[in-house]
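Chapter review: from sequence to fold.
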Amino acid sequence: MILYHGSNVKIETVDLNKCRPYKDFGQGFYCTTIEKQAEYMAERVVKRQGGSKQVNIFEFDETIFNDKNLKIKKFDNPSKEWAEFILNNRNRNFKDINSEKCNFDNKYDLVIGPVANDDIIILFRTFVDGLIDIDTLIKELTYKELTDQYSFHTKEALKYLKGVQK
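The token string follows.
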């Protein structure tokens, strides 16, 4: 399977230490199956940090799903569990790092699921502010067009990701 990563630099080797914390699935290296999504992310990074738009292409070895030594979490659709997981990972004040509902400690080597884009974050804020309940949040999310993300959190998971030259 081909995965894409939008950036402002060509990535030869993934350095997990350079990945930003407090993202949807925790600090990790994020890719998508959707090239247009990676292009959009590259444009955002260039606006914030400069550089030139780069869409890095990777071959993802799906035999990772057979590796019993890795812990993989997959969200097929928006759900209460998915929403709580994202809210916890984005929350700088969340303290229960041992919880299965966060990935601050990289307990998951790979996490796959929908992206909580800017449009979705507005819905999340209305939930956090107590203006809607979790069931309303999930119901509203079902009407959104969601893109996917694959986040790699450990060196072991990155072994299944190989850069492709353009």
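Two observations follow directly from the output. Strands lie at 2-7, 29-31, 54-60, 72-74, 110-114, 148-152, 161-164. The two ends are 16 Å apart (CA to CA).
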